[in-house]
Design brief:
There is one protein chain. By secondary structure, the chain is of the alpha/beta class. The protein has helices at 2-5, 7-14, 25-32, 73-78, 101-105, 114-128, 144-157, 172-180, 195-201, 208-220, 238-250, 294-312, 315-321, 328-364; strands at 18-21, 40-43, 83-86, 89-90, 110-111, 132-135, 160-165, 183-191, 224-231, 255-260. Helix content is 45%, strand content 13%. Helix 7 runs parallel beside helix 8.
Length: 365
Amino acid sequence: MHPTVLPEFVLNDSGADAVVSGEGENIFLKIAKKEIEPKGIIKAEFINDIDGIPFPKYKNTNINQYLKYSGTHRNRYTLPFPNLAVICARGCPFKCAYCASNSLFGKVIRSRSVKNVMLEIDYLISTFGIKGITFHDDTFTINKEWTFEFCKEIKLRKIKWSCGSRVDTVNQEILYAMKNSGCTFIHYGIESGSDRVLKDIMNKGITTKLAENTIRITRKSGIGVINSFMFGLPGETEEDLKKTIEFIKTVQMEVAQLSIFVPLPGSKLFKGEPWTLFSSDRDFFNNPSIVEDKELARLATKYHNKALKTFIFSPLRYSILLKLAKNPINLFYAFKLLALVIFERLKNNVSKKENSEKKWIEVTD
């Protein structure tokens, strides 16, 4: 996906002979057959019939290896073990200013048929004994008719699953169908507790009132809620950041993904910022702000810290976690993830203190 939005950079930075910009499955097949010379930037068209794309076979793969990394801890307590990820559609009709999905996959939804998705799930169950699936679609519930058909079929597999969606694409009926078919968690991208930011900066197309109602009916249906929030978008004020903290305080959710805004190449908010300063080797949620506005960067870090403390030490948080006591393994990984977040925060604070002391010594010397 990286070469799709930054083909020249990737080609020069990697030293590769060629990069494929676009959806590469068909192009790579042609390269392998020597029908296309692997040289320079090769542009690939969107694939309309994505049922025709073979799904991963995981041949000679130890599936357990996939779940040994820290980034998979959430899957360990939101889904039975072992579990894997599946994608059912490409494309997103929404125009969120911080997101690069439109640049990567276009604005037109191209969905796999329910039958095709079930073939992959049946393969994963029969071959690896998979008990859980995370669906990584941008908006899983974008097509209600497709979703109802999907729920009917996956219920027959007696498997647990989770997905990501938007708060304006679900209702009580569809949520109950999802719950009855094995859905354990839905991840909503709320992103801000400020209606001004949601409308004027993010172009998100939702309101905090709608978000609150959707979270309420989701939890009423028995499905757990994961919400994501970001801090430090261009134009965001301290008052906006305070509203996000208040929103986090008042809504019930099992998980909060709290991150500092990173301007993604391919998104509308990207204005040529030094995005290479962002380190994927670090804990994603603890990277410092790279926006040019130093005061905004300072506020982003300040309120990101507040949000972490607000969520981690919320009484609501522990009352929800205790419900996982029915499944000791899930509860273990839930608290392990919590401990990792706290550890990373403490480690970063120590690192900042050491760097500050080092600079002081250099100045005084």
